Amino acid sequence: MTETFLSIYEALPYLFRGSLVTIGLVGGALALGLTLGIPMAIGQVYGNKYSAGLISFYVWFFRGLPVLVLLFLFYFGLFTTLGLDLSAFTAGILVLGLRSAAYQSQIFRGAMQSLGEGQMLAALSLGMSKAKAAWHIILPQALRISIPGWSNEYSIILKDSAVTYAIGLMEIMTRGKFIATRTFKPMPIFLTCALIFLILTYGGVQLLNLLEKKIRIPGYGTEREGIY
Amino acid sequence: MQKDNTIVLRVEDIYKKYGNVEVLKGVSFEIKKGETKVIIGPSGSGKSTLLRCINQLTIPDKGRIWLENEEVTHTRKNINQFRQKIGMVFQDFNLFDHLNALRNVEIGLIKVKGMGKDEARQKAIEGLKQVGLEEQAYLYPAQLSGGQKQRVSIARTLAMDPSVILFDEPTSALDPELIGEVLEVIKKLALNGMTMTVVTHEMGFARSVANEVIFMEDGKIIDQGSPHKLFTNPEHARTRKFLSKITELYGRSAEKK
Amino acid sequence: MNGIYFIKDIVLPPLIEGTWVTIKLLFFSIPLGLLLGILIAGGRVYGNKIISFLCASFTVFFRGTPLLVQLFVIYYGLPSIGIYFSPFAAAVVGFVLCSGAYHSEYIRGAIQSIKSGQMMAAQALGMSKFKAIIYIIFPQALRRALPGCSNEIVYLVKYSSLAFMVTCIELTGAGKIIATRYFRYTEVFLVIGIIYLMMVSLVSKFLAIVEKKLKIPGLG
Fold first, then answer.
1. Helix A172-183 to helix A2-46 angle, to the nearest 10 degrees?
2. How far is B57 from B83, CA to CA, in rounded Å?
3. What ipTM was estimated for this complex?
4. Which chain C residues have any C-beta within 8 angstroms of a chain B C-beta?
5. How many angstroms separate the CA atoms of B257 and B104, rounded?
6. Entry pTM
7. Cα distance from N-terminal residue to C-terminal residue, chain B
8. What is the DSSP letter of C210?
9. For C106-164, what is each residue's pLDDT tens digit?
C-alpha cells in the first residue's frame, strides 16, 4: 500500500511538468482554432459561394478524420514531405488547432446565424461595409453566445491532447506510461493521470463559466432569455 | 339519469400538505353508482389535488378512500389494480405522444389488462367510434385539435371499463369553440349511467348534468347540494360570492348552455 | 505512376484487413455502448440515491477523462490486479464504457424533457412505474436523444482508431505498420483518411435514415 502511494508521490513532479505541456498544447490549439475559426465562420455565413464551399470542405475533412490519423498524416507524412522539421509540441498544436478551427467555426457560425439577419441589415443600412459590420456588430454578440459551446470545445481538446502520446510528445499520458513501465505500477499511475485530467477538465470548465458570468449582457446567454 | 344506491366511491377526511401549505383540510364525500358529482370552486381550492389523492397519484397525509367497499388507502394490494378501475381525464390531455389515437386507446388494454391484440384493437375502434373519432384513428396527438385530443383521452379512459371516472378540468385548456364537443361527450356518458366526478368551471354544464354540486374553497367543502339549490339559492355567502363572480366572467350565456 | 499503383496492391490488402477489425470493434461497441447508456440514464433518473450517485459518478469519470487513459487503465492497469483482456476485448470494454457515459447524458436529458403528465397518465391507467418507463417514457426519450446519440456513434467510428494504442491492429494501426515499413506515410494515411471519411459518411447517412423512419409528427 505505502509502496503505491510512494510511487504516486514520486511521480507527481514529473507528471506535473507533463500537465504544463498539456496546458500549453491545449491553449495553443484553442488559440489557433479561434484565430482561424472566426474568419471561417464569417466566410461561411457572409462569404461568396466559393469561399463557403472551400470552408465546408475543410470542415468536412478535419471533422471526418480521427485525431490519431490526422496526427500521423501530418507529423510523419505531410510535414516530412514538405521538409518541415517541427517538434512534436508544435506539430500537436498545429494539428489540434487546425482541427479545432473546423469545430469552432461551426460553433460561431451557428451563433451568427441565430442572430438573424436583422442585425446585419441594420448595420449595412447605416453605411457599414459587410466586413465592418461583421467585426463590430455581429462578432461581439456571436462570441458571447458561443461561450457554452466553446467551453465544451475546451474539454474536448483537453481529452484529445492525450492522443499526442502517439507522436511521442511528453505530455501527461506519455510520461505516465513511462513511469508505469519503470515502476511496474500501471494502475495507480494511470488512475493518477485520470485524476489530473479530471481536475483540468472540470476546473477549466468552471473557470470558463466564471468568465461567462463576468461578461454577460442582460438579454443574452441562453435561448430562453431571448433578446427582448 | 340512472340511480342506484350502491356507494362506488367514498372519500373520508382527506388532508394534504405541500411544504407549509395545507391544500386539503379534511374533505369527505361519497358517490353512488350512476351519479355525476361536479366540483366547483376558485383556483387553489385543492380540487385537482383531491382528484389525484383518489387514485393515489398523490398520497394524502391523512384520510381514507374506498372504491366499491375496498379500501384504497393503507392497502397491501397493488395500487395499479385500483387505478384500472378509476379513470382519470386530465386538463392537459396527456395523450402518449409517440402513439397514434388508436394505439393510445389500446395500450392500457394490452399492457395493463393483458388483452389480446385483436380484441384490444376491436375495443379501441369501438371506443373511438363512441367519441366520434374513428376517422382520426391513425393520427398522432400532434395532428389533433385540442378537442379531439381530449376526446381520445376520454376514449382511452373508457376502454378500461372503470367504475368511476375523475375529470380534472377537462375543458380548461381548450379554445372556446372546442369546448362544446367535449362537453357533449361527457354529457352522453352521464346520461348513460357512468359514475363520475367532474371538476370544472363550466356552470351551464354543471347545471344540466350534475346530480349534486360541491363547492370547495381553501381546501374544504363549503357547500353541497342539487344544482338547482346551489345555483339559485345557495346557503353560504361564500358560495354566492363565487357564483356571482363566475356569472360576471362568463356572462349569462354560459349559464344557458 | 506505376509505382503508386504497385503500392496500392501492397498497401490496400492490410488496410482492408484493418478496416475489417475496425468494423468488428464497432459491431460490438456501438450497440453495447448504447445499451449501457440507457441503463445508466435509467439508473440516474429512476434509481434510488445510491444507484443514482453511482451512475452520476460513472458519467463524471468517463466523460471527464480521455478515452486513452481509460484504455490504458483497462489494458495495462487491470492485469496488475489479475484481470486480463486481449487488445481487442480491452478496446471494446473501453469503448463501451466511454460511449455509454456520453449516451447516458443525451438520454438523461431526453428523459427529463418529457412532460410529467405522460408518467401520470400512464400510472392513472394502472401501469406500474416500470411499465410506464418502458412503454411510454423510453420510446419518446430515445427518439429525442437520437440526434445526440447519433453524434456519439459517429464519434466512436473515429475514436476506434485508439484501439491501436493498446496494440489492437485495426485500420489506423495497420496503416502505421505498412507506412513505417515502406516509409510512405503521406500516401498511406491519405488512403486511410479517405476510408474513414467514407465510413463516417455511410454511418451518418444510415443514422439519418433511421431518424427519419422513427420520426413521429410532434415528437421533436
1. 160
2. 9
3. 0.90
4. 115, 117-118, 120-128, 131, 135-136, 139-140, 143, 216-219
5. 31
6. 0.85
7. 19
8. H
9. 999 999 999 999 999 999 999 999 999 999 999 999 999 999 999 999 999 999 999 99
